[in-house]
């Protein structure tokens, strides 16, 4: 089945710097890749997603890129702010009439003022 | 903004006891899910539920687990005889469309501690 690897597990950046989190997936037929942000003690919330027919998607300071050939996708956060500090999870949706998301192991991002 | 709500937020139980975790999905959503997250590990799919039946379940979701939508608003996860390894955060989620099509909305989780 689908397997999603996520790196790094922790990431510390200075406020204003960029942060990049990378995920790889195993099933080349997976076609939907969301990113969730989970602040401490709160629920995971969708921040951006991308589908396999698109190579890049941007929403203000957040962007996601997808390389289908290499089977990896990345989250890019520019001009980081302390409120970006959270755990970020990538996920992939396997094909073949399935209804689940396979999550990565999470990246704890700390943005220092 | 509508939210998925879960109760209890934290439950402590003895090994072998039955536990029921409750969820109220967003009212116009059609797809319901349970995921779990063991401390420090990834979020794992347990089960999906659509049209009043299980549509998919993982290998984790064995005979000790069951789900129910008893009254059209609540969505429950029952663990019949808890084991130590069932200790985890359990997230309920719902979506208007299948999760590979539409956004998944998560509840804040129920932390289960089995002693």
Q: Give the helix tally of chain B.
A: 0
Give the SSE order of chain B as H and E letters. EEEEEEEEEEE
Task: Calculate the mean pLDDT score of chain A and round it.
Answer: 92
Shape of chain B: globular
User: What fraction of residues of chain B sit in β-strands?
Assistant: over 45%
The computed structural class of chain A is: mainly beta
Query: Stretches of chain A where pLDDT falls below 50 for ≥5 residues?
Result: none
- Helix percentage of chain A: under 10%
- Helices of chain A, by number, come to 0
Radius of gyration of CA atoms of chain B, rounded to a whole number: 13 Å
Beta strands of chain A, count: 11
The secondary-structure element order of chain A is: EEEEEEEEEEE
Helix-strand makeup class of chain B: mainly beta
Put the structure in a nutshell.
The complex is a heterodimer of chains A (113) and B (115). Chain A is mainly beta and 113 residues long.
Tell me the layout of helices and strands.
The complex is a heterodimer of chains A (113) and B (115).
Chain A: E1 4-7, E2 10-14, E3 19-25, E4 32-38, E5 45-51, E6 56-59, E7 62-67, E8 72-77, E9 86-92, E10 102-103, E11 107-112
Parallel strand pairs in A: 2-11
Antiparallel strand pairs in A: 1-3, 3-8, 4-5, 4-9, 6-7, 7-8, 9-10, 9-11
Chain B: E1 5-7, E2 10-13, E3 19-24, E4 31-37, E5 43-50, E6 53-57, E7 65-68, E8 75-79, E9 88-95, E10 105-106, E11 110-114
Describe this structure in words.
The complex is a heterodimer of chains A (113) and B (115). Chain A is mainly β. Chain A is built from no helices and 11 strands. In chain A, the strands form 2 sheets. In chain A, strands 2, 4, 5, 9, 10 and 11 form a 6-stranded mixed beta sheet that branches. In chain A, a hairpin with a 2-residue loop joins strand 6 and strand 7. Chain A is globular, with a radius of gyration of 14 Å. By secondary structure, chain B is an all-beta fold. In chain B, the strands form 2 sheets. In chain B, strands 2, 4, 5, 6, 9, 10 and 11 form a 7-stranded mixed beta sheet that branches. In chain B, strands 1-3-8-7 form a 4-stranded antiparallel beta sheet, with no helix packed on it. Chain B is globular. The model of chain B has no long low-confidence stretch (mean pLDDT 92). Chains A and B meet through strand 4, strand 5 and strand 10 of A and strand 4 and strand 5 of B.
């Amino acid at each position: 089945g689908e397997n999603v690897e996520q790196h790094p597990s922790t990431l510390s950046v200075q406020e204003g710097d960029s942060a990049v989190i990378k995920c790889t997936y195993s099933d080349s037929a997976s076609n939907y890749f969301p990113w969730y942000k989970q602040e401490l003690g709160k629920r995971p919330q969708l921040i951006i997603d991308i589908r396999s027919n698109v190579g890049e998607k941007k929403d203000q300071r957040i962007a996601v890129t997808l390389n289908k050939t290499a089977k990896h996708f990345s989250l890019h956060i520019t001009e980081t702010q302390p409120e970006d500090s959270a755990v970020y999870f990538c996920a992939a949706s396997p094909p073949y009439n399935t209804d689940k998301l396979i999550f990565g192991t999470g990246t704890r991002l700390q943005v220092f003022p | 903004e509508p939210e998925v709500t879960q109760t209890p937020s934290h439950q402590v139980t003895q090994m072998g006891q039955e536990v029921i975790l409750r969820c109220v999905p967003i009212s116009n959503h059609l797809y319901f899910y349970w995921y779990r997250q063991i401390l420090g590990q990834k979020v794992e799919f347990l089960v999906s539920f659509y049209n009043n039946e299980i549509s998919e379940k993982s290998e984790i979701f064995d005979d000790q687990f069951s789900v129910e939508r008893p009254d059209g608003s609540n969505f429950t996860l029952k663990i019949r005889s808890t084991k130590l390894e069932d200790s985890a955060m359990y997230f309920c989620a719902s979506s208007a469309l299948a999760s590979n099509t539409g956004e998944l909305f998560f509840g804040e989780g129920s932390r289960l501690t089995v002693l």
